[in-house]
C-alpha cells in the first residue's frame, strides 16, 4: 500500500500513515478482480480495517498473509505461532530476559553456523558490519567481492550482538532459504531467530501471491478488451458462407414482412406496396454487392494461385536448365567418366534403357537383381541422370527408402563419393535423413531415408509433395513398415499420376509384387559382380585341425542314464538298494558317418560330438588366424546371431595377444544398437598390414557394401522375431537362416 512513511522519529522504529492508501488500493484491486472473475482465478476478499483485527489466539503470520498489502513485519513484531514457536514461548525459553537473548541457548548461534559453513567451503571469512540507527543497531554481512547480504526488512535491534546474530541469520536465509534447492536450516536456529526466518518466508510468499494476483487481473482485463474488440468489429459480407448469408436474408425478409404487417393498418395499400418494393430493391442491391465481393475475392485468390504457379514453374525451368548444364560438365569431367566406367562394369547397367521405358509407360516397376549388382546405388542415379539430361531436374526429387539407418547413411555417402560430392553439402544433389540426423539442403535431388521417415512424409496434408520418384529397396524383408508403405503408395498412385515407384530386392517374389500393383513390368538383372567360393564346415575342420575341448559349450551334453536296483543280503535277510549311472552316447543326432567318409578321423570326432545350434567362438578365431597366415589380404566379415555373441567374441579377441594387437588386427562390431558413428567405422580403410575383422548380425546382409571384405564366415544362425503361443508374446528366437538369406 501507499501508506508507508519515509521518516523515522527518535529511532523508535514506528511507522506513520498506517495503511489508508493501502486499504484503498486493495479495495480497488479486489473490485477489479471481482469484475473479471473466472473459475481459474480466486476472487480476493475485501476486508475492512475493523475486520483485520486478529485475536490473541490467532497467529499473527496467518493474519498477515490474509490481509492484502500489509507492511513488512519488524524485528519486534516477527510472526508468532509458525512452526510451533510463539513470542511467549521465546520469553520463557530465554528466561524472560528478551526474545533475542542467547545467554541460555545451548546450541549453535547463527553467527557460528555461518562462519563454520564458509570454513567448510574453504571460502574467505565473511565480515559483519554494524551501523547505528538512533539508539539501535542494524547489521549486514560482507562476503567476497564486497557483496552485501542485508536483512530483508527494516529490522533494528537494541544490542550489537542481537544485530550481528540477525545479520548472520539473514545471510543463512539468502544461502539456504531462497532459490530452487531450499533447506530447512531454520530448525537449528534459536527460537527468536527461527521466528524471524519464518517471518521472512511468509512475507516472500505473500509478495509472490500478490504479484500473481495482479498478473491474473491484468490478463483478465486484456482478455476482456480483446473480446470486446472482436464483438464490436463489423463482419464483412465475404466472411460469411452462402448458407449463413441465405439465413440472414431469410431473417431480414421475415422481419420486413412482420414490420409491413404491423404498419399495414397505419399505411394505405399504395404506401405499403411502395415500402415493400423499396425493401426488395435494397435487398437485391445488397445481394448483388455481396456476390460481387465474393467473386472479386475468388478471382483474387485464383490470380494469386496462378501467379505462384507461374513463379514456381519459371523457377523449376531455370533450375532444370542450370542442373542440365552442370550435369553436362560433370559427364565430361573425370568424376563422370569414372562413374560411367564403374556402372558399365555392374550387371545393373544393362537395365538402364528398360527402366527408362518402364517409367515412361507405367507408374510402377519391380526390379530384381543379385547381390552386388549395384541396384541400391545405380538405379536412383539412373533416374536422376535421365532427368538432369532432359532438363527436368527442377521438378525431379527421388526418395530411396532403406530398412535400416546404416544402409541409408552408407549408401548416401557412397553415391556422393561416386559423383565427387560431399553428402548434404552445399550444391550437392545427394543427401540422407534418418532418425535424429539429417543431411539435406535445398539442392538435394536424391534423398536416402529410412522407411519410417517415408511413412512420416505420407502423413502430411499433401503426401509426398514435391517427390517425383519413390524407390523402395529391400522389399523382400516384408516388415510392418515396408508393407504399410507399399499399401499407402498403391492408394496414392491414382491421386498422383506424376508419381513413379520402383520396388527393388535381390531375392523377391516378382510375380506377387507385380500382381499387387496391377501387373506392372518386372525387370531382372542377370549375373553377379564377384564370384563366391563356398567352403563348408567339414572342409574348415579338416583345414584348421580344430579339436573340441572336453569342457567346450559346443559339445553335446552327456546326460547318461540312471539305474536303480534292490539286492538281498545273505546275512540277516536284509535288502539293499543301489543306484548307478550309465554313460550315454554323447553323439550329434544329425551326424551321418557315411556322408563324411572321405574326411580324416579328426573331422568325424568333432562332427559326432558337435552341438550344431551353439556358436563355436574358438573355431571362428582359429579360422581367422588361418586366413591371416595362409590367404591373401582383405577384410573378414563374420555373421553372428545377435549382440550377445558379438560382445563375447569381441571381448575374447580383443583380450587375446594375437588379435588384440592393433598393429595387425582391427576388430569392429556392427549392430543396430550402435550409434551411427560406431557403425560407419566398418567402412574405414585400414592401413597397410592391418586386417579388419567385422563382427556383424544380418544388418550387413543387405543394402550395405564393405568394399574390402574378401572373406565371409557365416555361422548360419540369426535372431528372428516369432510369436510364442504359450506366453502369448513376441520374442527373438535363435534360428537357422534360409537358403535365400545365405545366398544373399
What is the strand content? 5-15%
**SS field, number of helical segments:** 21
**Could you give the distance between the termini?**
84 Å
- Percent of residues in helices: 40-55%
Keywords, separated by commas or semicolons:
744 residues; alpha/beta; eight-stranded mixed sheet; four-stranded parallel sheet; 21 helices; 19 strands; 15% strand; flat; disordered N terminus
Word description of this protein:
- The chain has 744 residues and is α/β, with parallel strands linked by helices.
- It has 21 helices and 19 strands.
- It has helices at 20-35, 60-66, 87-93, 110-120, 160-177, 191-232, 242-263, 269-332, 334-344, 352-361, 375-389, 405-418, 451-458, 480-492, 510-516, 537-544, 601-609, 617-630, 643-655, 676-680, 739-743; strands spanning 127-133, 136-143, 147-149, 364-369, 398-402, 430-434, 437-439, 446-450, 469-472, 500-505, 522-525, 561-568, 575-582, 635-639, 665-670, 691-696, 709-714, 717-724, 729-736.
- Strands 7-6-8-5-9-10-4-11 form an eight-stranded mixed β-sheet, sandwiched between helices. The chain has a four-stranded parallel β-sheet with strand order 15-16-14-17, covered by helices on one side.
- A hairpin with a 2-residue loop joins strand 1 (127-133) and strand 2.
- The relative contact order is 0.05.
Amino acid at each position: 500500500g501507499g501508506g508507508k512513511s519515509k521518516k523515522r522519529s527518535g529511532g523508535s522504529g514506528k511507522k506513520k500513515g498506517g495503511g489508508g492508501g493501502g486499504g484503498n488500493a486493495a479495495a480497488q484491486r479486489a473490485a477489479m478482480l471481482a469484475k473479471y472473475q473466472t473459475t481459474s482465478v480466486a476472487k480476493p476478499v475485501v476486508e475492512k480495517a475493523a475486520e483485520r483485527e486478529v485475536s490473541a489466539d490467532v497467529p499473527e503470520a496467518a493474519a498477515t498473509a490474509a490481509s492484502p498489502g500489509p507492511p513488512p513485519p519488524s524485528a519486534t513484531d516477527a510472526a508468532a505461532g509458525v512452526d510451533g514457536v510463539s513470542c511467549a514461548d521465546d520469553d520463557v525459553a530465554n528466561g524472560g530476559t528478551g526474545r533475542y537473548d542467547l545467554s541460555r541457548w545451548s546450541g549453535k548461534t547463527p553467527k557460528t553456523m555461518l562462519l563454520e559453513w564458509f570454513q567448510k567451503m574453504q571460502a574467505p571469512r565473511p565480515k559483519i558490519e554494524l551501523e547505528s540507527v538512533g539508539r539501535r543497531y542494524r547489521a549486514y554481512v560482507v562476503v567476497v567481492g564486497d557483496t552485501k547480504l542485508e536483512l530483508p526488512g527494516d529490522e533494528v535491534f537494541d544490542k550489537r550482538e542481537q544485530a550481528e546474530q540477525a545479520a548472520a541469520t539473514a545471510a543463512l536465509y539468502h544461502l539456504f532459504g531462497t532459490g530452487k534447492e531450499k533447506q530447512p536450516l531454520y530448525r537449528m536456529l534459536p527460537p527468536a531467530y527461527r521466528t524471524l526466518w519464518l517471518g521472512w518466508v511468509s512475507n516472500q510468499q505473500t509478495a509472490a501471491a500478490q504479484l500473481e494476483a495482479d498478473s491474473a487481473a491484468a490478463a483478465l482485463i486484456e482478455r476482456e478488451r480483446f473480446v470486446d474488440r472482436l464483438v464490436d468489429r463489423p463482419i464483412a459480407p465475404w466472411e460469411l458462407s452462402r448458407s449463413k448469408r441465405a439465413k440472414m436474408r431469410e431473417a431480414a425478409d421475415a422481419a420486413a414482412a412482420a414490420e409491413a404487417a404491423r404498419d399495414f393498418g397505419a399505411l394505405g395499400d399504395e404506401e405499403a406496396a411502395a415500402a415493400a418494393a423499396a425493401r426488395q430493391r435494397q435487398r437485391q442491391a445488397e445481394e448483388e454487392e455481396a456476390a460481387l465481393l465474393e467473386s472479386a475475392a475468388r478471382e483474387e485468390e485464383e490470380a494469386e494461385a496462378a501467379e505462384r504457379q507461374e513463379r514456381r514453374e519459371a523457377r523449376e525451368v531455370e533450375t532444370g536448365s542450370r542442373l542440365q548444364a552442370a550435369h553436362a560438365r560433370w559427364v565430361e569431367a573425370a568424376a563422370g567418366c569414372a562413374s560411367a566406367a564403374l556402372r558399365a562394369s555392374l550387371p545393373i547397367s544393362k537395365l538402364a534403357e528398360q527402366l527408362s521405358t518402364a517409367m515412361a509407360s507405367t507408374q510402377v516397376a519391380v526390379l530384381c537383381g543379385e547381390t552386388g549388382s549395384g541396384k541400391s546405388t545405380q538405379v536412383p542415379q539412373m533416374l536422376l541422370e535421365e532427368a538432369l539430361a532432359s532438363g527436368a531436374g527442377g521438378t525431379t526429387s527421388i526418395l530411396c527408402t532403406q530398412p535400416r539407418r546404416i544402409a541409408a547413411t552408407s549408401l548416401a555417402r557412397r553415391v556422393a563419393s561416386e559423383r565427387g560430392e560431399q553428402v548434404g553439402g552445399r550444391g550437392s544433389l545427394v543427401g540422407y535423413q534418418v532418425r535424429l540426423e539429417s543431411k539435406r539442403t535445398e539442392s538435394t535431388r536424391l534423398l536416402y531415408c529410412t522407411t519410417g521417415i517415408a511413412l512420416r512424409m505420407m502423413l502430411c496434408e499433401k503426401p509426398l509433395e514435391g517427390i517425383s520418384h519413390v524407390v523402395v529397396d529391400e522389399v523382400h524383408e516384408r516388415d510392418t513398415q515396408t508393407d504399410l508403405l507399399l499399401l499407402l503408395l498403391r492408394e496414392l498412385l491414382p491421386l498422383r499420376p506424376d508419381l513413379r515407384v520402383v520396388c527393388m530386392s535381390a531375392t523377391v517374389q516378382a510375380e506377387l509384387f507385380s500382381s499387387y500393383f496391377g501387373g506392372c513390368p518386372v525387370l531382372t538383372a542377370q549375373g553377379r559382380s564377384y564370384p563366391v567360393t563356398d567352403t563348408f564346415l567339414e572342409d574348415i575342420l579338416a583345414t584348421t585341425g580344430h579339436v573340441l575341448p572336453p569342457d567346450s559349450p559346443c559339445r553335446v551334453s552327456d546326460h547318461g542314464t540312471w539305474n536303480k536296483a534292490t539286492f538281498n543280503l545273505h546275512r540277516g535277510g536284509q535288502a539293499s538298494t543301489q543306484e548307478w549311472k550309465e554313460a550315454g552316447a554323447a553323439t550329434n543326432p544329425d551326424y551321418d558317418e557315411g556322408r563324411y567318409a572321405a574326411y580324416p578321423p579328426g573331422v568325424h570326432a568333432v562332427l559326432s560330438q558337435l552341438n550344431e545350434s551353439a556358436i563355436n567362438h574358438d573355431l571362428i578365431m582359429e579360422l581367422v588366424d588361418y586366413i591371416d597366415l595362409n590367404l591373401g589380404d582383405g577384410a573378414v566379415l563374420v555373421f553372428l546371431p545377435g549382440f550377445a555373441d558379438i560382445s563375447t567374441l569381441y571381448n575374447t579377441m580383443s583380450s587375446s595377444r594375437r588379435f588384440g594387437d592393433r598393429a595387425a588386427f582391427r576388430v569392429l562390431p556392427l549392430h543396430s544398437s550402435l550409434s551411427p558413428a560406431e557403425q560407419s567405422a566398418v567402412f574405414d580403410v585400414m592401413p597397410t598390414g592391418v586386417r579388419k575383422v567385422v563382427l556383424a548380425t544380418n544388418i550387413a546382409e543387405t543394402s550395405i557394401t564393405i568394399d574390402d571384405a574378401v572373406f565371409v564366415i557365416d555361422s548360419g544362425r540369426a535372431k528372428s522375431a516369432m510369436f510364442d503361443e504359450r506366453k502369448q508374446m513376441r520374442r527373438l528366437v535363435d534360428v537357422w537362416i534360409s537358403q535365400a538369406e545365405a545366398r544373399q
